[in-house]
Amino acid sequence: MTPDLLMRELRVRAVSISRWMTRPDETRAADRQAAVRLAAQ
């Protein structure tokens, strides 16, 4: 993995984690699934 890809991945994860932490419970599951899909790409 190149440093650029790694940094992008970290940024994406940081955004989804902060979003996940600030959202109500019902949207957390959807966000978590989206994050998992992104991570799997």
Topology, pairings included?
Blueprint: H1 3-22, H2 25-40
Explain what you see.
The mean pLDDT is 82. With 41 residues, the protein is mostly helical. Helix content is 88%, strand content 0%. The chain has helices at residues 3-22, 25-40. The protein is built from two helices and no strands.
The secondary-structure element order is HH
Question: How large is the radius of gyration?
Answer: 11 Å
Would you report the number of β strands?
A: 0
How much β-strand is present in the residues?
under 5%
Distance between the termini: 13 Å
* Percent in helix: over 70%
Broad structural category: mainly alpha
Q: How confident is the prediction overall: mean pLDDT?
A: 82
Number of separate helices: 2
Specify the oligomeric state.
single chain
What does the largest sheet look like? none
- Give unreliable regions as ranges: none
Based on Cα principal axes, name the global outline: elongated
Please summarize what this structure is.
This protein has 2 helices and no strands. It has helices at residues 3-22, 25-40. The longest helix has 20 residues, at 3-22.
